[in-house]
Design goal:
3 domains, 10 strands, 3-stranded mixed β-sheet, 4-stranded antiparallel β-sheet, alpha+beta, 662 residues
């Protein structure tokens, strides 16, 4: 399947006031094991999960994993390098606990005990960066040279995760490189053609209508009784006729014996087709009544209408095509709704099936078989005429046989002959009906079973094709995080250019990423929510006060949709509060002295989306981490409490106490 064959997604328009709420379009949790640590995992396997979490923007989980790995005795320069990055990622020095500061000091003091190699070089470079504020004027160039000598992967990881730690001239030196890298990688790996797949719901498993339960056994059970009674009553009637007129009785019986199998042969096809048509009509009416007003069914109906409207046979007008296929679409809607309605799935999860059935209808139309089932009850006229003639002949023979039997018997025998004839007709009808029921059900079951097997196989193939295509298109967590990091870097660069600042000018900064409605969201199990549309809020702390830049962002296209700027003094920020509701989500409330409170929805509730083995508190912490909430809250809370004094209290003029590197 190619991009050109993928169903076009119609954008959903929605509007709302600033910071207000409208509905979520879709959400999915991908069943991935990238963040799952098995109970029997070795420290080395745990470590890989920690590195993956750090690369994907979940430093809080990485810290927990690395601490556990080190506690289990797996401790070397590589582990400590990633441990330091996880400890400092998205955090400033003043956000570290006393225990974490002591641990950093311990690692710095014992750095010489680790084996020489690229990981020790990288770890040494990290600690040289951390002690840089107290170095001489020429020291940044030496540290920068050491940093650039590292392998690109190590260097990029240090710059990314120590972003809030870097200061002074080194920060300006690295910023140009960081910006250029973000511009180069922003649309890497075919971003605009693949992001949609991350938010695509996992397709529902293929299903098909199974054969209906057969009633052949019940019909076959009573058939011997009716056949025996029919044979007995017919035999009595023939004996009476034979006694009255042997020659005529033999002739009439010969004709009857020829007419019965002939009528059965042609009549069973007519009976089966008539029965199939009535059963299908009743089933369609039942589906129509059962699904009337059903939201899922209405969505399926709209999806089929859209597919049939956009996929029209060559040379056929769309309106004519929709008119001709109205009955077919009705049946398909009823089938899909019946198969999936009770599963509480979203219509997008059966989109692959709807497209497959639409393409199948086009294929059958091209072969001339699309409307074959509609005329299934129309047997050839000659067959039906012959069947009628045989049935009329059979009735005439039975009447003649009755007259023959009654003509040569007394009054008492005549009554018995009439009763025998009535019994023959009655029991013959019951025997014939039971035989037709048994034969028809066997025939139906075999036909429907074959159709079910073939249809299910075709749907499994279509499902596998779509799922493989989706899995191939879906970006990895690392790709999503990389693109998001590039977007944030360029947002900061744009703000610096607008305010004519260098990268060393802001005292501190933070970016809060919140969902911009309407949005689609998705995540892997044990991972953070990622959104199709974000609101980025950049808070720059400068000597003159706070500068806030907010922009709504289409993540798939990396396109800003709107931008808002505001500036306020340190003392204008009165207080910062957090309101968390399990059923709603949590909000950040900014209260300014000269304006109304600002309510920012940081994240919607996701309790209903958690897997049984997921911890709600841990997932909430991961999402706060990914959104930049923790750092943002601490920064704004500190400024609200201390005003401009926050700068003196939290921006150190001396380096932290872990200077020893060897």
């Amino acid at each position: 399947m190619t991009d050109g064959s993928r169903r076009k997604r119609v954008p959903v328009a929605s509007s709302a006031a600033y910071d207000s709420t409208v509905g979520i379009q879709a959400e999915t949790v991908h069943n991935s094991s990238v963040y799952i640590v098995q109970p029997d995992a070795t420290p080395q396997e745990q470590y890989k999960v920690g590195v993956k979490s750090l690369q994907d923007g979940i430093p809080s989980r990485a810290r927990d994993v690395f601490n556990d790995v080190i506690a289990r005795g797996y401790d070397n320069a590589e582990v400590r390098f990633h441990w330091v990055l996880a400890l400092l990622s998205t955090r400033a020095f003043h956000e570290l606990s006393r225990e974490e500061t002591k641990q950093l000091h311990h690692v710095a003091a014992h750095l010489g005990e680790y084996a020489e190699g690229e990981w020790k070089d990288a770890l040494r470079a990290v600690f040289e960066l951390l002690r840089l504020p107290s170095t001489a004027d020429g020291e940044p160039d030496r540290v920068l040279k050491r940093l650039r000598a590292l392998p690109p992967g190590h260097r990029d990881a240090i710059i990314r995760h120590l972003d809030l730690i870097l200061t002074g001239g080194l920060k300006d030196s690295l910023w140009a490189e960081n910006r250029e890298r973000a511009e180069a990688d922003r649309f890497a790996n075919d971003r605009t053609q693949r992001v949609w797949a991350y938010f695509e719901l996992d397709p529902a498993e293929p299903r098909a209508l199974p054969p209906g339960q057969s009633t052949a056994a019940a019909a076959r059970e009573v058939l011997p009784l009716w056949a025996t009674l029919f044979a007995a009553t017919t035999g009595i009637l023939w004996i009476f006729a034979l006694l009255a007129n042997p020659a005529m009785a033999v002739l009439e019986l010969t004709v009857a014996l020829a007419a019965v199998p002939t009528a059965a042969y042609f009549g069973r096809q007519w009976w089966y087709q008539d029965r199939w048509l009535k059963t299908r009509s009743r089933a369609s009416q039942a589906d129509g009544h059962a699904t009337a007003g059903d939201g899922f069914t209405n969505s399926v109906h709209q999806a089929f209408h859209h597919c049939f409207s956009t996929q029209v046979p060559p040379g056929c007008a769309p309106d004519l095509w929709l008119h001709q296929t109205a009955r077919i679409r009705f049946d398909l809607v009823g089938e899909v709704a019946f198969l999936y309605r009770a599963s509480r799935i979203h219509v997008d999860q059966v989109g692959w099936l709807i497209r497959h059935l639409t393409e199948d209808a086009l294929d059958r139309y091209g072969k001339g078989t699309l409307f074959k089932q509609r005329h299934r009850s129309e047997l050839p006229m000659g067959t039906r005429t012959l069947c009628v003639i045989v049935l009329v002949a059979l009735g005439t023979v039975i009447s003649a046989l009755l007259r023959t039997a009654a003509s040569g018997a007394g009054e008492a025998y005549a009554v018995l002959a009439v009763l025998a004839a009535a019994g023959a007709v009655c029991f013959g009808y019951l025997a014939g009906r039971s035989w037709l029921e048994a034969w028809g059900e066997d025939h139906r079951l075999a036909t429907e079973t074959q159709a079910y097997v073939e249809e299910l196989a075709a749907r499994r193939a279509a499902y596998a094709t779509w799922k493989n295509f989706l899995d191939g298109k879906r970006p990895s967590e690392q790709e999503m995080e990389s693109w998001l990091t590039c977007d944030k870097t360029l947002l900061v660069d744009e703000a610096l250019r607008h305010y004519e600042l260098t990268w060393r000018d802001p005292i501190a900064y933070t970016i809060l990423m919140t969902p911009a409605r309407p949005y689609k969201r998705g995540r892997v199990r044990n991972g953070p929510w990622r959104y199709s549309r974000y609101t980025f809020r950049l808070f720059l702390v400068t000597q003159d006060g706070m500068r806030e830049i907010s922009t709504d962002y289409d993540f798939a296209d990396a396109r800003s949709e709107s931008e808002r700027r505001s500036n306020y003094r340190f003392d204008a920020l009165s207080s910062v509060q957090v309101a968390e509701h399990a059923q709603v989500g949590y909000d950040l409330e900014l209260i300014l002295t000269n304006g109304p409170a600002r309510i920012i929805r940081v994240k919607d509730a996701d309790t209903h989306q958690l897997a049984p083995d997921e911890n709600a508190q841990e997932i909430a912490e991961i999402n706060r981490d990914a959104a930049g909430f923790v750092h943002t809250f601490r920064l704004l809370e500190g400024i609200a409490a201390d005003g401009k004094g926050w700068i003196e209290r939290n921006i150190p003029h001396t380096p932290p106490p872990f200077l020893t590197t060897d």
